[in-house]
Amino acid sequence: MRRSGEALSSAQSAPAGAPERGDRSDWATLRRLFPYLWRYKWRVLAALAFMVGAKVANVGVPVLLKNLVDTMTPKPDMAQALLVVPVALLLAYGLLRFSTSFFTELRELVFAKATEGAARSISLEVFRHLHALSLRFHLERQTGGMTRDIERGTRGVHSLISMSLYSIVPTIIELTLVLTILGVKFDALFVWITGAALVLYIGFTVTVTEWRTQFRKTMNELDSVAQSRAIDSLLNYETVKYFNNEDFEAGRYDASLDRYRRAAIKSQNTLSLLNMGQQLLIAVSLVLMLWRATSGVVEGRMTLGDLVMVNAFMIQLYIPLNFLGVIYREIKQSLTDLDKMFVLLEKEREVRDAPGAQPLAGRDATVRFEDVNFAYEPARPILKHVSFEIPAGKTVAVVGPSGSGKSTLARLLYRFYDVQEGRITIGGEDIRQVEQGSVRQAIGIVPQDTVLFNDTVEYNIAYGRPGASHDEVVAAARAARIHDFIDATPKGYETMVGERGLKLSGGEKQRVAIARTLLKDPPILIFDEATSALDSANERAIQAELRSAAQNKTTLVIAHRLSTVVDAHEILVLEGGVVVERGTHAQLLVADGRYARMWMLQQIQAEPVL
User: What are phi and psi of 466, to 5 degrees?
Assistant: First the structure.
């Protein structure tokens, strides 16, 4: 017999950044799931037919047992009957037993593709949607809690489809068949006892499970908190080491685990109460049914075969009745888990393509910022009436103190965010009116903080243009002055870079990022502090390569070191979100304004101390 159990997966309210439970009802969640399943409607119907066949065969087994026992009852012509009838019944019994397993396996065989296909479709849609959400969402989310939501949601799909849909209906069919046989062949009291036990069982299960939901919810909230805390600590491994805070992190994690432990114990205690109540109801109903059957045998109204049949029916009903409790709990927690994933899927895209948006024409790579105003938060404006133009094939540099809004320009051009006022155009086309994918395809960026995939060096360089040949990857690496370093490693281009590229130095990661962008070869380039992690010698070498790569390309250079932008066609000085100066390097020095003071200060800092 299968004991009522409970999977760990369930609904939870994850910490900040994770999706909350939606307001939709359970039926609305099922309707949301239905289209994914209906793509496999013929498999669904066939699997249901096989399951019904298995249940019909299962109900036939006790009937055969009754006939077999009655046949074995002593009769005058018993010897002749033993030679024919029992053999046939035994063969039929074996056939029915086999049919039960056969139809069940056919159901699994036919329906596996529907279950896995629906789970795959939903998971892929969520994955694509997460990549389509704005940078703001990904800056606010907590990876651990969100990945738990997706993992539980995917498991919820499997539970709802494989358990609920093909357990509830067949169980109802089996109960109906059994009650019909008992009511027709014997008397209504058998039906009343079984029916009353079923109603009490379902009512008790639903009531206690609803009461237990609060404990399950608390337990899973704490589980998500512990998971997020552990992942956040591991992602910041170096910072933990810098400050010798291993014990501090372990203490925080252990505190989360202890809160989870206490909640889990409380949840398990209520589960034990539920299980004991269910078993008590089943035991009482079994005793009453067998009392009624044995009384019938004593009074001569029923045969020994009838007693065996009733007992077999009760044993067979015990399993689905017990299973109904598991199913209900699985349905409730799976619906909640699935709903949280649907809530994630329904997160509104902050940046979306306009209706009927067409790809960027790409005839002209001139970039214009026209009276742009932007703020991440309304109370703190970042850019104020910023206007400038980067002519096709020219280089414009933006310099200024930290926090002045320099990197925000790159994020807006890449359309990670949309401007609140003004507009940004490429070739005269407002980037909000064209497909954002085509805008990003036209731009290559070397960011200040380079993060690499936990894969090989070649994979990370080739990411700039998936499908590029090995020779093209090598050529890009040579242009970025990293080929010699790669070639000197034991595994060469197959060297693993570690999570977020931690096995490489800052300069090596930066050169991989430069090689990746050079391989992409877009018409527009953004260098956001592209050489900030390099030493002076490597910086000068890379600068020459970057200038070569920027030839005939529209280039936006965001820099702190003014020595890297002296060759720009125009230099903008951004301060407090406002362009306070603009001109060439020579013009700005002559103007003797902020740029000139910044240049003088950096030159003094660069002079060697004697």
Answer: -55, 135
Same domain, 542 and 431: yes
pLDDT per residue over 83-108, tens digit each?
445 667 777 777 877 877 788 788 77
Q: Please, what is the average pLDDT of the chain?
A: 78
- Show which of 345, 378, 407 is a domain's final residue: 345
pLDDT for residue 8 is more than 60:
no
What tokens were used for 71?
Answer: 């046949």
Q: Where is 371: in which H helix or E strand?
A: strand 367-377
Do you know the residue count of the chain? Answer: 610
φ/ψ of residue 578, rounded to 5: -125, 140
Token digits for 575?
A: 């301060």
pTM of the model: 0.60
Q: What is the mean pLDDT of residues 492-508?
A: 80
- Average pLDDT (367-376) is 90
Note down the domain range covering 594. Answer: 367-606
Q: What is the CATH number of the domain that holds 499?
A: 3.40.50.300
Choosing from 345, 375, 406, the residue where a domain stops is 345
Say how far apart CA 74 and CA 594 lie, in whole Å. 115
Residue 569 lies in a domain: yes
Hey, what are 169's tokens?
């209906």
- What residue type is 385 in one-letter code? H
- Does 385 lie in the same domain as 323? no
